């Protein structure tokens, strides 16, 4: 596995790793704040905020605007995530992170800063990905995408398998390796079931998603959030944080209230052209297993997404690719040009098959609800292109770049929800 940095987690020196870039809080609200990038890095034990800074190509330095500390006595794991806000006005050329004489980078800023209002954009969508030979082709394909004008990467849960193993160093290694992509392409994430250790805190301390709040005081900050980027309203929530906790009843109420308020607030937002919802676990699957009976619990959430006319429902967890036919609110097959959201399951980006199965199990009576299935072979990757006249989704084999499936949702054909 190619690494951009090798650092000793217990050296006693101030060293950092896991460099990620994403959109700042401007995109999570309707406030007229300053547009910019959010950079984050992680230190294990030995850095103070005065020692870590982002240095721009012109030599100017930006200090961390807040730190997020995490400690777990069971694993003997202690770390600090440092976050930096870089306005677009200063984001020219390259950036690097300097920590007491050590440095990460330099990295190039993303090619296409976001803006208010709609602008065509392309995104890579991945999930269910370990750090092994099985995911190498996905890492390589994503690295190629950093030079092709993509707006960002959406990582829809299940990282590393598992972040908390080997006293937390498994997760550190995964995110260190993923930095070769996320230091150059903005990175939107949601946790999956494999990040649930310590109520997702060992995972979430690393991230601050746009619209997710301050993770130092709001532990749910990366478990649900909303952002409008280039005219696309992205909404995400972590199923397991809500329903698999001891506090599921109150968390469900909390998230439903938040989701209802967020969708209502953005319902008349003129800059929004498309609406996309992503969560790790599917609403429903094509076979009956415990994890694929979420439909009944998810129904109140789905009802809100239908009410506010979302265009795409993107899920993962199942280590395969399914494109469902359009389904109405009663789970009946609808006309392909009807104004219901198109639903996908995409979760085959590279996992040891002895861990995840990757077996096609579709009873004959369920096949009628499927439009397309990609058998588990080499890892594949789903790309999403938002255009003026519609959305094109393409599934490619990561090894060969062969197109395995493609669908265009066209406004002219009435298959998208907004005019």
Question: What is this structure, in a nutshell?
Answer:
The chain has helices at residues 136-145, 169-182, 201-204, 239-243, 248-266, 295-307, 353-356; strands at residues 16-23, 36-43, 52-56, 61-63, 66-72, 77-87, 94-99, 102-108, 121-126, 129-130, 152-155, 159-160, 187-189, 224-229, 232-237, 274-278, 312-315, 321-324, 342-346, 370-374, 380-387, 390-397, 403-410.
Query: How are helices and strands ordered from N to C?
Result: EEEEEEEEEEHEEHEHEEHHEHEEEHEEEE
Strand content: 25-35%
Low-confidence stretches: 1-9
Task: Give me the number of helical elements.
Answer: 7
* CATH architecture annotation: 4-Layer Sandwich
Radius of gyration based on Cα positions = 20 Å
| Helical fraction | 10-25%
Number of strands: 23
Total discrete domains = 1
Strand order of the largest sheet: 14-15-16-17-19-18-20
CATH topology: Purple Acid Phosphatase, chain A, domain 2
